[in-house]
Amino acid sequence: MDFVGKKLITIVAESALEKRLVGELHNAGIKGYTVSTVHGAGIRGQRVGDLQGGNVKIECVVSDDSVEGIFSVLSTHYFPHYACVAWLSDVAVFRGEHF
Amino acid sequence: MDASEILGIALTNLISPPVLAFALGLLAVAIKSDLRLPEAFYQAISIYLLLGIGIKGGVALRNANITELWLPLLATLVLGLMIPVLAFTISGWLTKLDRVNRGALAAHYGSTSLVTFTAALVFLESSSRFVEGYLVTLLAVLEVPGIIVGLLLASRGRSESVAWGESLREVLSGRSIVLLVGGLALGAIAGNAGFASIEPFFGGLFTGVLTLFLLELGIVAGRRLPDVKKAGAGVVVFGLGFPILAGALGVSAGLLSGLSVGGAALLGVLSASASYIAAPTAVRLALPEASPGIYLTASLGITFPFNLIAGIPLYIWLAESLEGVLSWTL
Known about the structure:
The structure holds 2 protein chains of 2 kinds.
Chain A: E1 3-14, H1 18-27, E2 34-38, E3 55-62, H2 64-77, E4 84-94
Chain B: H1 3-14, H2 17-30, H3 39-63, H4 66-94, H5 99-110, H6 114-126, H7 135-143, H8 145-155, H9 164-172, H10 175-204, H11 206-231, H12 233-256, H13 261-272, H14 278-286, H15 292-326
Helix pairs in contact in B: 1-15, 2-11, 3-10, 3-11, 4-5, 4-7, 4-8, 4-12, 5-8, 5-15, 6-13, 7-10, 7-13, 9-14, 11-15, 12-13, 12-15, 13-15
């Protein structure tokens, strides 16, 4: 089996940001992503939420060289003001050209 | 009009099923019940309410005389521009909030709450008070200008420019405006005959669905209540006092522009109510540093329950009291 090493970026943010975050990921040249509606709690607890539909989790597998750009955008425009967290994991994918 | 009459209106309002359901929602939170409406169901009934109220308004608009419409329309536009400026100024007197947070408050109080409006409309109709059906048109007109004025006021206090395009697109293409304006058009085209075929669903069931919706809003508002303490006394005073002022302005503007007592009361409700669906999203995107703990707590945790429980009867009473003083006929 030919597995290729990639990075998985997982962003959990208030749902008002969904379109904007997906736009940022596209700007960074990603090829695909998955969005799910989730709920939970964090340290901030301040959001528009509730009536607009809680949180979204955006998952996106990228190559190593896109990671820094994406996280620098997140740190500048999202982490300071919004309910938004993100983490990075190592993943192995089949068919590396899909990501 | 004496004290016993206002108490009578208040009591009838208080024991109406929608308001009681709201109280049940608050109670459910207080006893830490896990009760919530499923998200998708809640979204579906909010679409039902918006479209339903739009269609009914559209049917009324078709039957209305255009010449009686332009003065109330003008009054509504003036209110839409004036209320956010007043909210911005008065919140500055009552609180220590910065321009951005006051602008966010102004955007919320300048816009309107569909549910408060609907609850008031249902209450007026159930107590056999006449209301001009085209008031829904005024709801649609009042929804947007307040948000724009509020964002404008806030943007003067920011170093970064406001993301206007994205926020306005969010407001104008959001479901509130699309369903309200779309519903108005749909109702105006279909007319009475067309409406008759959907009346059982959008007419007969309406108050029942509103009752379910208010149960959920009681839960959401109840979960906001702990934040009220954190928001500070000034915000609480603003959240309770500003709707009375704006409501009185709305009632007066309604009577002066020739609306009936019920219509003027409803314009009062529109002016007094604060948005918690359209405005929060727009403000969140345009003014990230404004705190939802302030603006959403004020509009949803303080002003909405106040209007639902005490404000609606108060504005009706005001309209009935001021009728002789301010009304005139062409």
